Amino acid sequence: MKILLAEDEKQLSRVLIMAMKSVGYDVDPVFNGQEAVEHAQANAYDVMIFDIMMPVKTGLEALKEIRATGDRTYIIMLTAMAEIDDKVTGLDAGADDYLTKPFSLKELLARLRSLERRTEEYDSDVLSFGDLKVDQAEQRLASHNSMSLSGKETRLLTYFILNADKELSTQQLLNQAWDRDENADAEDVWIYISYLRQKLQAVGSSTIIDGQKGGPYQLSQPA
After folding, report:
1. Alpha carbon distance, N-terminus to C-terminus of the chain
2. Which of 95, 110, 156, 211 shows its CA 20 to 30 Å from the CA of 85?
3. Nearest residue to 174 via CA among 161, 192, 162
4. Which residues get modified to 4-aspartylphosphate (predicted)?
5. H/E run at residue 157
6. The model's pTM
7. 110-149 per-position pLDDT tens digit
8. CA–CA gap between residue 16 and residue 69 (Å, rounded)
9. Residues 107-115: contacts with CB under 8 Å, at least 24 apart
10. What is the pLDDT of residue 146?
């Protein structure tokens, strides 16, 4: 998983980075809420972990700004504030989970593993972007009409929708849809991008996937 970590306590940040990288996660560290917003807007993440008390912009302010853009990435808040009202405020603002400082690294890693399993096994929502809908369980694409998708097309388009308007690298798409298949490469991604473009046109969607062979690629809607 690719994780954005916003934590201004440098020592704690280093410990968290080491722990998450030791189990194979890719971590981008930032040290204030404004940097968190900018990274969230520019990159695709599977999870974001935000401290609440940060300089320039608090974690709560960053959370609200990111959610206002329609970003649905799973967000865990870290806080020294253990009052129920603080947690309710964060959850109502769009946070998905809370960890109260001091917390156990084992617990944080267990929660990330749990999230990874849930994403892989139980993600059956119908996602939408613009005039486009993707039913992940039925592997079906719909706009003015509908048609079936392959499993790999479904996973690719789901990832595009969850990260709409962001540039996604070929490697990110390989990680998401090819299950760490070492034989898959940029040519495979390009072929499936071509398939998806044809299907978007076939269902009459105005949504487009920008990008040349080799990437990066971006799902967007013309203004």
Report:
1. 32
2. 110
3. 192
4. 51
5. helix 151-162
6. 0.69
7. 999 988 877 655 455 788 899 999 998 888 999 999 999 9
8. 27
9. 108/16, 108/19, 108/49, 108/76, 109/19, 109/20, 109/23, 111/76, 112/1, 112/3, 112/20, 112/25, 112/47, 115/1, 115/47, 115/74
10. 92
Sign for the CA dihedral angle at 52, 114, 150, 174 comes to positive
Closest among 50, 59, 47, 54 to 23, alpha carbons compared? 47
Asked if residue 180 has pLDDT above 70, the reply is no
Local structure of 219: helix, strand or coil: strand
Dihedral sign computed on CA atoms, order 164, 120, 91, 131:
positive
How far is Cα 94 from Cα 72, in angstroms, rounded to an integer?
Answer: 9
Q: What are phi and psi of 14, to 5 degrees?
A: -60, -40
Between CA 174 and CA 184 the distance in angstroms is 7
The contacts of residue 21 (CB under 8 Å, 6+ apart) are 27
Burial status of residue 22 (CB atoms within 10 A of its CB: 0-12, 13-18, 19 or more): exposed
How would residue 73 be classed by pLDDT, with cut points 50, 70 and 90?
Answer: confident
Report the interhelical angle of 170-177 vs 151-162 (nearest 10°).
130
Q: Are 12 and 50 in contact (CB under 8 A)?
A: no
